[in-house]
Amino acid sequence: MLLTGGVVVAVSAGVTVSTPEAVYIAAVRLVGTTIGVGPSFDGFGLSVPMFFYGSTVPEGDSFHTVPYPAQINLEIPVISDLPGLSDIPYWPHSLKRSEQIGAGYLQQDIANTPADDKITIIGMSQGTEVAEIVRAEMAKDPKYVANADNYEFVFIGDPYQPNGGILARFTSWSDVPVLGDLFPLGRPGPSDSPFKTTYYQNQYDGFADFPAYFNALAIANALAGIVFQHVFPGYVLERPDAPNAVTTQVGNTTYVTLPQYLPLLAPLRIPASLIGAERFVDAMDPVLRVFVEMGYDRTADPSQVKEFGWVTPPEKIHEALNALPAAFEQSLAILGGEKYTPTLPQPVVSGTQPETPVTEHPIDPVGTSPVEQGVRHTVEDVAAALSDATRPLAKVLQAIGGATAPHKTVDPADSTVEAVGETGEQPTSTPVSRNPRPRSEASGTDSAPRLRVVRDTDDSDTRTPAPKPVPGKDRPDRTSVRAAAKHAAKEATKSAEAKRDRPAKRQSAKAG
User: Fold this and answer.
1) What are phi and psi of 68, to 5 degrees?
2) What is the pLDDT of residues 396-429, one digit of tens each?
3) Beta-strand (E) ranges in 96-159?
4) Phi, psi dihedrals of residue 285, rounded to the nearest 5°
5) Mean local confidence (pLDDT), 421-448
6) How would you classify the pairing of strands 253-258 and 119-124?
7) Distance from C-alpha of 229 to C-alpha of 221, rounded to nearest angstrom
8) Considering only CA atoms, which of 2, 21, 19 is closest in space to residue 235?
C-alpha cells in the first residue's frame, strides 16, 4: 500500500481507499549534505531514497545512507561477533546492539564531514534511534554545540518519541533481566538539544504513539497501527501541512502529530471501498475512537516523557462518557453524507524545562583494522550503488499516488524558511513556552546555506494550493532560481527569433 496524498493505494489488491488528509511529506530545500539512516530490516537505508527522494531529499542534492545491521534479533554466540562481518547490514543482532553499531558509523560519518558543511540527518524507525544516540553525544561536545546551526535532525516514526515512543513509555523496565538486554528502553538523551530537530508522528503508530495507560482496545489499535501507520504504508509520500496536523514547538524541537483513522478499522475500510461503502466504516470511527483515546493524554506536553501507566485515570473515563453523545451525533452525520476528518486537541506546553529520564546507550566503536576498513568500504560502495538504483522508484511511487511533495520557491538571497500550504486553513500550533537557543545571524544569510525543512508554519490567513502533478510531466521547479533561469531562456529565445524575423519582414515590404 502507498499512503499518497490522502489515498491508500492497495497495489496488490488493486483497490483505493479514502484516508484522512493529515499525512506525511516533508519538503526540504537542501544546500549541503543529507544522511539517511534506514528502519529495521533495511540495513542499506534504501527506504529513504525509494520513498523520499525528490521530496524529502530533493533531486540533485548530496545524499548518502549509513549502512548498519538494522536488526531486531538475538545475539548469536560467536557468529554475532565475527570480526569484519558483525557490522554489515542484516547481520544477526539484538535491537540494542544494532543501534549501537549504527550510531558508531553515523558518528564517524558526521565527524568526517567538514565543520562548515550543512548536514541534515533523516532517520526512520530504528534509524531514528541511531540518530537520537548520536544527537545526544553531539550535544555534549562543545565543538558541535558551537556550530549547532550546521546540524539538523528529522525523526520519522521515532520509538524514542518523548510522549508516545514505545521505548520511552517503558523506561523503568530497562533494568529488567533479558528484556533490558535485548531492547534499548529509555531515551538516550534529553528531548531538546542545541540542534534543530523535527519529530513526525502518525497518530496510532504503535512504535511512536503507544498508549499512555493500560487499555486493551487502545493497545490492540496500536498494534494494528504498527502495521498500517508505521510499517506499511506508514509515512510514505504523505503531507505534513494538512489543516488538521498538530504542530508544537518546544525550544529547538518541533513535534508534528498527524491525525489518522483508527487502524483497527483498516481491514474493513479496504473491502468497503470496493462497493462505495466507506462512510459506513467511517461512521464507526468516532464512537470507537472515544474508547481508544481513553488510553492517551493528548494535551500532555510532547517534550515530556510520559511512562506507561497500568491504571486509567478516573478523569479519562469521565471524559470519554461525556464525549459519547457528540460521537454518536457525528456518526449519524457521517451516515448522512458528511465528510469525516480525524482531529486532535492541541498539547499544552509546560513552562518548566522537562526532566527527561535518560538511560545509558553506549556507541559501538568503529573497527580500525585493515580488514574491517576494507569490508566497510565495500559495504558503503554497495549501499551507494543500490541507493542510486533505487531513486527512480520514487518517481514511480509518486506517479501511482498522483501527488508529490509540496514545494515553495525560495529566493537564494533569502534563506529564511518559507511556508508551504495546500489548503486555505492554518495548521494548529502552540506558542513556544521555552525560548529556543538563539541562532546566530550568519545562519540567516545565503552565505551560510543549510537544509531547510519547508513545512506549513505560515501565519497568513490564505494560501494558494500547490498544483497537482500530471502523470508523465515533470514536477514544478524546486527553487525560484530554476524558474527564473527557464523564464530567461524562453525570453532569450523569443528575442533571438524576433531579431531574425525583422530583416526578412522589412525586405518583404520593400519588394512589395
Assistant:
1) -160, 170
2) 766 765 544 444 333 444 444 343 344 444 444 4
3) 119-124, 151-156
4) -65, -50
5) 41
6) unpaired
7) 11
8) 2
- Report the pLDDT value the prediction gives residue 236, as an integer from 0 to 100: 74
CA gap 357, 189 in Å, rounded:
8
> Can you tell me the distance from the alpha carbon of 184 to that of 94, in angstroms, rounded to the nearest whole number?
9
Dist CA 308 CA 164 (whole Å) = 9
Positive or negative CA dihedral for 417, 412, 131, 45? Answer: positive
Task: Work out the angle at residue 253's Cα, subtended by the Cα atoms of residues 248 and 258, and round it to the nearest 5 degrees.
Answer: 45
Task: Return the C-alpha cell found at 334.
Answer: 457521517
Q: Which residue has the cell 568503529?
A: 366
Coil, helix or strand for 111?
A: helix
Pairing type for strands 452-454 and 27-29 reads antiparallel
- Give the separation between CA 205 and CA 215, rounded to whole angstroms: 16
Q: Which three cell numbers stand for residue 413?
A: 538571497
**Rounded distance between C-alpha atoms, residue 405 and residue 24, angstroms:** 9
Query: Per-residue confidence at 362, pLDDT binned at 50, 70, 90?
Result: very high
Find residue 198's DSSP bridge partners.
Answer: 154, 254
Q: How far is CA 329 from CA 117, 283, 286, 343, 389, in A?
A: 55, 10, 9, 16, 51
By CB atoms closer than 10 A (0-12, 13-18, 19+), residue 228 is buried
- Judge whether residue 8 has pLDDT over 50: no
Cα Rg of the chain, angstroms: 25
9: left (phi over 0), alpha (psi -120 to 50) or beta: beta
CA–CA distance, 100 with 80 (Å, rounded to integer)? 14
Tell me what pLDDT residue 508 has: 37
Rounded to whole angstroms, the Cα distance separating 492 from 500 reads: 12
Give domain limits for the chain. Answer: 20-476, 479-512
Sequence-distant (6+) residues with CB within 8 A of 110 are 35, 119, 121, 134, 138, 151
Nine-digit cell string for 361: 546507550
In 6-111, at which residue ranges do the beta strands (DSSP E only) sit?
A: 7-10, 15-18, 27-29, 33-37, 62-65
Sequence-ordered strand ranges (E) for 38-137 = 62-65, 119-124
The DSSP output letter for 263 is G
What does the block give as the cell for 66? 549509513
Dihedral sign from CA coordinates of 350, 354, 357, 358: positive
CA pair distance 144, 385, nearest whole angstrom: 30
